[in-house]
């Protein structure tokens, strides 16, 4: 017997549970690490350093790590920990 998708008693997909504090903490840690590495990589290219103008990295927003679902990044943005800059990019909210 096959389930008819038009039956009213068929179970509807429910919203996933909100991310746990531990998931949010780990996601934030991974985000900070990726941002730090992206900035270090940008600063290590030619044109930066002690003998040049000494400019800092211009990277302000990054694409968050893929190992965490989009819902976690949205929740962190809702809580004010990170800011959604559009185009799938997020930045750290300076406190």
Topology:
Layout: H1 21-43, H2 70-78, E1 82-86, E2 89-92
What features would you describe in this structure?
The protein has two helices and two strands. The protein has 95 residues and is an alpha+beta fold. It has helices spanning 21-43, 70-78; strands at 82-86, 89-92. A two-stranded antiparallel ribbon has the order 1-2. It has a domain at 21-44 and 57-92. 34% of the residues lie in helices and 9% in strands. Helix 1 (21-43) crosses helix 2. The longest helix is centred in the middle third of the chain and has 23 residues, at 21-43. 9% of the residues are buried.
Beta-strand portion reads 5-15%
Look at the helices and sheets and give the structural class.
alpha+beta
Spatial order of the strands forming the largest sheet: 1-2
pLDDT < 50 runs, ≥5 residues: none
Q: Biggest β-sheet, characterized?
A: 2 strands, antiparallel
Residue-averaged pLDDT: 83
Comma- or semicolon-separated keywords:
95 residues, alpha+beta, two-stranded antiparallel ribbon, 9% strand
Q: What's the short story on this structure?
A:
By secondary structure, the protein is an alpha+beta fold.
């Amino acid at each position: 017997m096959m389930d008819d998708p038009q039956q009213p008693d068929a179970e509807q997909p429910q919203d996933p549970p909100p991310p746990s504090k531990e998931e949010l903490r780990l996601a934030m840690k991974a985000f900070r690490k990726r941002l730090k590495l992206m900035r270090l990589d940008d600063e290590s290219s030619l044109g930066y350093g002690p003998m040049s103008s000494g400019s800092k990295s211009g990277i302000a927003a990054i694409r968050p790590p893929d190992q965490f679902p989009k819902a976690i990044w949205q929740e962190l943005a809702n809580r004010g920990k990170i800011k959604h800059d559009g185009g799938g990019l997020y930045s750290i909210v300076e406190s």
